[in-house]
Amino acid sequence: MSPDSLWKRVPWTLLICTTGLVLLGLSGIARADELSTGTDRFPRQVLWATLAVPLLVVAAAVPYRSFKPSSYLLFAATLPLLIVVFFMPPRNGARSWIPLGFFDLQPSELAKLAFILALAHYLMYRDHYRRLPGLIPPFLVTLVPLALILKEPDLGSAMLFIPVLFAMLFAAGARLRHLTLVVALGIAMLPVFWLGMNAEQKSRITSLFAQTEGGPAPRGDGYHQHQSKLMLALGGAWGSEVAGMAVDDPGAYHLPAGQTDFVFCLVGERWGLGGCLLTLLLYAVLFARGLAIAAATREPFGRLVAVGIVALLASQTVINTGMTVGLMPITGITLPLMSYGGSSLLSTAVALGLLINVGLRPGYEVTPDPFRFAD
Q1: Residue of 14, 25, 206, 264 with fewest CB within 10 Å of its CB?
Q2: Residue-range definition of the domain harbouring residue 329
Q3: How many Cβ atoms from other residues are within 10 Å of residue 301's Cβ?
Q4: Looking at residue 346, what is its pLDDT?
């Protein structure tokens, strides 16, 4: 394909949404630095955003089909890293990072991308998952990284594997009635999962149902949800950038993990309702463009990779924004492109680079006709 043809295929809408979300995230992180004394995370996030640009370009430039032969190996290589974290010092009660001095590596971010590539390779031409017993191998493979990440414990990252698996199975041709049956079985197993959770994970779920309107801020995990909703309320319609600070009480603006898990609240406080709506609009357009890329290619590996990436980022966005407004339990999950952190931003840049990669090369391979099955 000629350079001119590739240039015309670049999904500019996706890149514009990506840039807008990064800038909104930076504005939220800068606001957090203003509200918290002694923090200077904004310049560091600018550095990570700068490093993310060449990563996105490389991920988009190298033909994505070249990742297919090594996809199983890449996935297998991430599993030992998920075990290494258990020997690392805990941070906020979790062992999720490998300190490298200049950079803290979060292996779960690598595992999610490697999982998508490996699952796309596995599903691309097989049709036995059209039968219920054929769903067992993909689910068993999914349980390996999910269980390791859940053990860290990182409930948020572990949860993301399930919607990615279901979305990719559905796109590959799994029957909806079989997937519905699996969901029903999963719901029936919830009491077992509950017994396997630690006290902290249980408290985050119970605090969701113990929310109260008004009154003093509760203690424990309920405090985070109380403060996140309060921060959004303080932003009002116009935000502090236009209308100024709503109250003079510094305690009202205290938001733990504001730059990471609750950056959406800081954007809402700074830019008001308009900033929140703009954020959601940019995400909606980005995901719609990603699904359009998946629909435009009939090459099975690329299509499944695109579906997996959109499912991953969309699930992460729904969970994060849902927990900030008290609709979902707090899981410690970051908001793609916006939350502070090198691992999250760089891995998201690679994921979006792969999505652009698929959009640039939507052609067929000389292989069996994909996604057509006899009933």
Answers
A1: 206
A2: 9-210+249-360
A3: 23
A4: 93
